[in-house]
Amino acid sequence: MNNRLEGAIEPVDAETAAAHVDSDAVVAVSGFGAVGYPKALPLALAEADRDLELTVVSGGSVGKEIDTALVETGAVARRYPYQSRPAAREAVNDGTIAYQDRFISAVGDEVSLGHIPTPDVAIVEAVAVGEDWFVPSLSIGHTAAYVRAAPKLIIEVNGSIPREIGQFHDVYERELPPNRKPIPLEHPADRIGESKIRFDPDTLLAVVETETPDDPYSFREPSATDREIATNLATFLEAELERCSIFDDRIALQFGVGSLGNALMGALSDIDFGDRDVYYYGEVFQDGLLEMIENGTLTGASATSFALSVEGQRRLFDDIDRYSESVILRTASLSNSPALIDRFGVVGINSAVEVDLYGHVNSTHVGGSRVLNGVGGSGDFNRNSPLTITTLPSRHGTETSCLVPMCPHVDHTEHDISVVITEQGVADLRGSCPRERSQLLIERCAHPQFVDDLEAYVERSESAGGHAPHDLESAFAWRS
């Protein structure tokens, strides 16, 4: 891997580098969409005979080396702003790890401003490094902000990833408030930065070489329910293209990460977009977007991470020159920027655990208490998109309705959600009052199995009056 290291850099082994990390350090790591995170260093820390109480700050989801191996050794005491592995989830829910869920767009600023713990060391993955720069690997996230904030830096150079991956990168760093200027990005596919992240050479402690690949996504085959939701989404979007003037010339879309989001992306190829330019502007680039690039549906795509399957990564690596003509990776402060979501009129399409009768959305907690993964960037898009769509099945399994009287945990309020889509149909909630929303959601989105119970709940709650009537005695016990 000598062509990956430029200048006088001499690599060391992971164990030597890990010794630079204090036992109670705040560690900021690269990684987003479970790719682009350091692997050798976390494993060396997990295997070290040390009593560690680390605070780990990532850009988004990371792999098993951090959220499984480190967690299972008891080395992680605190975690921000996202977690996605069973071991981490269990530790958060039993209180072993102190965890705070955050909207993604502001995490870089929050680290820089000390709103969440300032990192003692940044550990990042790269495909190449020089004396004052490195080229990130398969994600960018908030890595640049973490490197700027941390007084110490350790870089892992991963030889399993083509160095040419830097052709996708567009790293643009902003000043902190109150000196922040408008983002000079006028078009979803514009480039305004460079492929490298710069750092102070005095902060670099060690460079480690690794050949460990990411643990790519494994997308399940779309279910019949997924396909019905996708069909309903496509039908709604086609009508919206004709109805809404902001989509006359182009449309920009965002999808949440996961199997449902990937299935919905694939369905867009069946929509007649006419002569409009179609862009993806979001956090993660998934397999469904590769298909849209190849068949010409997408004019361009902007993200902060390649969250691809094994096959998707192979396709990307085999044709980097072609894909890099229309695909861009940005920092998460731009991929999730409220200003850019608004400027480009991005349609936000995200999934949920459940939706209540007035349009409040729970994306993260089962039973109101047990966290799943994290809110991620869905709040950035739901809060700032001109059109926000929540997609989900009408039921989980055969006994649990996903449309409930009152969400026991709320990530997105009724004010943030425009449309709810299940396999049953589409509830367009725009302009409707709370009582109208409850009827729309029951009639168009509820599973038939639960319609009578939901209507009975509405009848009980409305008898007591109020603007958004509830029967609090039975709101959470209606199915027990």
TrEMBL record:
InterPro entries for this protein: AcetylCoA_hyd_C, AcetylCoA_hyd_C_sf, ActCoA_hydro, ActCoA_hydro_N, NagB/RpiA_transferase-like
Mitochondrion recorded as keyword: no
Domain (Acetyl-CoA hydrolase/transferase N-terminal) ranges: 13-208
Alphabetical GO biological process terms: acetate metabolic process
Domain Acetyl-CoA hydrolase/transferase C-terminal: 312-457
GO molecular function terms attached to this record: acetate CoA-transferase activity; acetyl-CoA hydrolase activity
Coiled coil: none
Family to which the UniProt record says this protein belongs: Belongs to the acetyl-CoA hydrolase/transferase family.
Protein name (database record): Acetyl-CoA hydrolase
